[in-house]
């Protein structure tokens, strides 16, 4: 018999214990602490206890799911678009009950559809950085996660290939494209002051690297950061690159490869040993490019989607 209820103060120990038992270790997901959970989830001004669902079996916590809403400005929730941002499942039946209750909560708050494990900003939940980095969806090794979401009607909506590069190459950079300059600076967001990755719920500091032409036009851009929390917990020395962009006019001219090499050199100097990213599984050109500069596919990850009108009424 599964008992469902919402979060109460004092549940953190069981919540964190189940997370660390079932989820910690999936790709860049480091162990979670009670203090971190309280600070990054419960203490947020937009946290609603009714969205954190706990499922008990035999008196023990067997699954929990955290539901929330996307935000166009990273401040005001959009109650039309629900998200399952965190999920820990020891028992699939309990997981199904927890996710079902989470969907009921989203539906009652006005959601028309629900996504799970999305990263496309602004759909990223405020605190999804608990995964240790900008996850490209649910890792294929997530215990019981796939089956739980499938039972609740979710369908894979987008896929990504998680790729890793060992930062053991030469420090020498390839020649910069003629008439360009390199800029590496703190990341600036329209939603925050020049600051940290807190805009994503991630404690690490984000920087941006850009190649600009003589007029200041951005020809290539990427964001990168060290996975500090994950590295402290695991002893690994991993960094992440994200939001890679190259203008059409530069493609094939070595600009993107130069930018990647510059970022890799910067991170090596700071002690990083591995670099990770997520490439769209259907973006063959990007996957081939990353393989060419030393990235290897590690595993797959997926985002999920559920339309309430199609898959049932959770009222």
Distance between the termini: 22 Å
The CATH class name of the largest domain reads Alpha Beta
The number of distinct structural domains comes to 2
CATH superfamily of the largest domain: Gcn5-related N-acetyltransferase (GNAT)
For the secondary structure, the number of strands is 13
Q: Main β-sheet, in a few words? A: 13 strands, mixed
How does this model look, in words?
By secondary structure, the chain is α+β, with helices and mostly antiparallel strands. It has 2 domains: 2-158 and 302-311, Aminopeptidase; 166-300, Gcn5-related N-acetyltransferase (GNAT) (Aminopeptidase), CATH 3.40.630.30. It has helices at residues 12-22, 34-42, 92-108, 145-151, 228-234, 255-269, 284-292, 308-311; strands at residues 2-6, 52-57, 60-71, 77-89, 113-116, 138-139, 155-166, 180-186, 207-213, 218-226, 238-246, 274-280, 296-307. It starts with a strand and ends with a helix. The model is unreliable at 120-135 and 190-201 (pLDDT under 50).
């Amino acid at each position: 018999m599964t008992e469902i209820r919402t979060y109460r103060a004092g549940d953190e120990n069981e919540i964190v214990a189940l997370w660390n038992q079932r989820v910690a270790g999936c790709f860049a997901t480091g162990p979670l602490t009670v203090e971190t959970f309280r600070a990054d989830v419960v203490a947020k001004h937009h946290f609603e206890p009714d969205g954190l669902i706990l499922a008990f079996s035999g008196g023990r916590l067997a699954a929990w799911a955290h539901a929330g809403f996307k935000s166009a400005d990273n401040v005001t929730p959009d109650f039309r678009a629900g998200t399952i941002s965190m999920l820990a499942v020891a028992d699939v039946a309990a997981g199904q009950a927890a996710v079902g209750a989470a969907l009921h909560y989203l539906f009652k708050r006005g959601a028309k559809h629900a996504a799970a494990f999305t990263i496309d900003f602004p759909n990223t939940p405020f605190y999804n950085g608990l995964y240790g980095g900008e996850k490209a969806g649910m890792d294929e090794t997530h215990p019981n996660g796939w089956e739980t979401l499938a039972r609740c009607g979710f369908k894979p909506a987008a896929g990504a290939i998680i790729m890793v590069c060992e930062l053991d190459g030469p420090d020498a950079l390839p020649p910069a494209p003629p008439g360009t300059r390199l800029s590496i600076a703190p990341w600036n967001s329209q939603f925050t002051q020049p600051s940290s990755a807190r805009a994503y719920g991630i404690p690490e500091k984000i920087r941006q690297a850009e190649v600009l032409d003589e007029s200041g036009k951005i020809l290539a851009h990427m964001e990168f950061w060290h996975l500090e929390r994950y590295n402290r917990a695991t002893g690994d020395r991993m960094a992440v690159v994200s939001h890679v962009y190259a203008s059409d006019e530069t493609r094939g001219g070595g600009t993107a490869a130069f930018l990647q090499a510059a970022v890799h050199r910067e991170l090596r100097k700071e002690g990083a040993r591995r670099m990770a990213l997520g490439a769209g599984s259907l973006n063959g050109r990007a996957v081939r490019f990353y393989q060419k500069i030393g990235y290897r596919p590690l595993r797959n990850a997926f985002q999920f989607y559920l339309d309430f009108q199609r898959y049932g009424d959770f009222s």
